[in-house]
Known about the structure:
Layout: E1 6-7, E2 10-11, H1 17-24, E3 28-30, E4 33-36, E5 38-39, E6 47-53, E7 76-77, H2 101-108, E8 123-128, E9 136-142, H3 160-166, E10 169-173, H4 178-181, H5 192-207, E11 213-223, H6 225-236, E12 245-249, H7 261-274, H8 284-289, H9 292-299, H10 330-335, E13 344-349, H11 353-362, H12 370-394, E14 399-404, H13 425-429, H14 432-436, H15 442-460, H16 465-470, E15 482-485, E16 493-496, H17 499-502
Parallel strand pairs: 4-7, 9-10, 9-11, 11-12, 12-13, 13-14, 14-15
Antiparallel strand pairs: 1-2, 3-4, 5-6, 6-8, 8-10, 15-16
Amino acid sequence: MGFAFVLSAVPFALAGPDAQLSLCSAPVSTTNGCIIGHQAQKRSHVCEYLGVPYAVPPIGHLRFAPPEAFTSDETLIASAYVNCIQPSSRQVIYPEATPQELQILANFANQAKNHSQSEDCLALNIWTKPSNRTGKPTLVFFHGGRWTGGTSNTPYYDGQFFADTEDVIVITLNFRINIFGFPGAPGATQNVGLLDQRRAVEWIRDNTVAFGGTPDKITIVGQSSGGVAVDFWSYSFRTDPIVSGLISHSGNAFSFPVNNQSLSSSYWYNVSTHVGCGNTGDVLPCMRSLNTSTLLAASSLARAPPQPSIARSIPAFQPTIDNLTVFADYPSLSSAGAFAPIPYLHGNNHHESGYYRISAYASNNATAPESVWTAFELESFTCPTARAARHRARAAVPNWRYRYFADWDNLRLYPGSGAYHGAEMNMVIGNSEGVSRVSASEDEERLSRVMMRAWAAFAGDPVMGLEREMGWPKYDEQGETLGMLGFGDEGGLDFVGSGTYDGECGSLGDGVI
């Protein structure tokens, strides 16, 4: 049974509340069987489907294994989020923190107290506005969290506002993280968390029509490590990318180091030794027999070696180079144009370290000179984005680059936190008040509408949408094509030459070449 989004030949937007409630609760036929949703709480024109499985629960013999397609002939009441297993993190009150700091960080870092967690978490959430429109673009969001934490169950990724404002389909998803998604077991399939993302997008390809979409207009969007995953995708699935557009926020394949197999194996055996499964050979059967809490506690004891800068700490359990899903030499691959020629929208924030300073402070009140943070922002965000933009432009792949500047009162973490890591997601999702519990200003709401429109225009037509609808030119390293979003805390889009911010990348060697 399909989902026509039409009630008695009258667009849903013209129907009354009772008809709306009936439409959202009508069964939608998918490869999982029928799914029943409900009206979104804040935007009643939107239908919401929460906790829709896209893979078989990765438990028992499927723990640490690639995801398997899920099928069912039962009806699912899609009414509740699920959360993947992850270590707990403590809340940190930074010096001169604003009243909303803890609220924002709790929503960003999945510190909500009421979030139950499970290994059975491979599910996605869907928001769509019923209407006569068919073939709507679908935007699929990969959350960040340094491969260790994060969730789709957060106001940062509440898709009802974006789906309502732009009449697009918004989908968020969970994927396995930390040791469950990136175990590093030698001889086994690596990076199953990345394969979870692939399985989710395959499900979306097969089912988006039922929600008013089309498989020809799927764009994947990621923030931080989620942005890295989006860029990884372009190298891993060159011959069958499925998606038509890529959007990376504050992270790409050049941003952070990953593990080689030897390093990942050492962490794996560190845990297996600690729990009594041995330190050599095939310990997978034993590791799969442990209860979740034992495994999580042991994995939390594994520590990556200290990095030269406190700004660039890395987790033990993260992607491993296997030259299938994660490669050893992205600079060479990128320079050679060895990525899927998919249009790319990517960028970073003007003061990424505004968030990372809190993370560093959480580690024994660690601080660093301003020069350390400046180098960190260049090395991890500005220069990686510059390199990716240049290489794609030289390979004739359409790409657009942005830099986000806004520092809104309701999203400020402390005086001077600025346009910190993750702040721009509030503009795209359109729920800053839900994140901070403080009302947004008119300029902030204006910028949110601009960014929603831009992201939707790109998803609707990744080749021409931004130029046609926003006047945003394709990236050209010689022209004024770097989009400045919220510059001067205004709700607009302006353009400047990329050299304005890339000039110091040369000090990092081949940082942008």
